[in-house]
């Protein structure tokens, strides 16, 4: 188990009890990496950190400077609560949500960013992201009354919008990433 032990996990710009949520675990080079979000989702300092263990049951160790996705690193408020997925080439990505703008939380927006595992002397790879690699998804799809995607293109990955129209009005979001058949994705958090 993890507790809010680092300063970035207890920001006070949005009053709430300590929060840690949205966990997901992957195995990389024999180590387990637990990604999680801390702070309230309405906080501009909602962020993603990680911990490392030799077993999926822990104990988990938080590296120094383990906050990897935050407004200071990706440039948008409320960046957190997502999941990890990889493409057919083995590239690893994190999909998460951000606030709608600097002044409004909702409707939240989806972002995707590559994760970089960098060898370290700590006995595990450090996880890093690069601000210039943030992907702003755009999807072109039409939803019917039952929120089913019509005119779906099989080799394209579609992210469903939380506020899609049900009267046949097109919903547009963006995607620089095109997933081919055979790629796998975890339970992706949609915003």
Model description:
The chain is mostly beta strands. Helices cover 2% and strands 34% of the residues. The chain contains 1 helix and 13 strands. The protein has one helix at 71-74, and strands spanning 20-28, 31-38, 47-53, 67-69, 80-86, 92-98, 109-114, 116-118, 126-128, 140-143, 149-150, 170-172, 184-185. Strands 1-2-3-4 form a 4-stranded antiparallel β-sheet. Strand 5 and strand 6 form a beta hairpin. The longest helix has 4 residues, at 71-74. The protein is globular and about 40 Å long.
Major beta sheet, specifics? 4 strands, antiparallel
The shape is globular
Tell me how many strands there are.
13
Structural class based on helices, strands and sheet pairing: mainly beta
Terminus-to-terminus distance: 27 Å
Mean pLDDT: 78
Spatial order of the strands forming the largest sheet: 1-2-3-4
Radius of gyration: 17 Å
Strand content: 25-35%
């Amino acid at each position: 188990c993890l507790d809010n032990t680092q300063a970035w996990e207890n920001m006070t710009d949005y009053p709430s009890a300590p929060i840690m949520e949205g966990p997901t675990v992957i195995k990389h080079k024999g180590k387990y990496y637990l990604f999680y979000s801390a702070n309230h989702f309405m906080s501009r300092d909602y962020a993603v950190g990680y911990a490392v263990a030799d077993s999926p049951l822990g104990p988990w160790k938080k590296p120094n400077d383990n906050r990897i996705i935050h407004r200071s690193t990706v440039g948008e408020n409320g960046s957190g609560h997502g999941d990890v997925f990889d493409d057919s080439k083995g590239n690893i990505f994190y999909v998460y949500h951000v606030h709608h703008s600097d002044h409004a939380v909702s409707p939240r927006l989806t972002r995707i960013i590559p994760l970089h595992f960098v060898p370290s002397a700590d006995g595990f790879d450090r996880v890093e992201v690069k601000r210039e690699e943030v992907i702003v998804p755009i999807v072109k799809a039409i939803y019917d009354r039952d929120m089913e995607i019509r005119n779906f293109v099989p080799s394209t990955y579609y992210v469903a919008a939380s506020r899609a129209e049900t009267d046949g009005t097109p919903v547009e979001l963006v995607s620089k990433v095109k997933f081919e058949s055979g790629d796998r994705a975890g339970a992706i958090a949609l915003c």
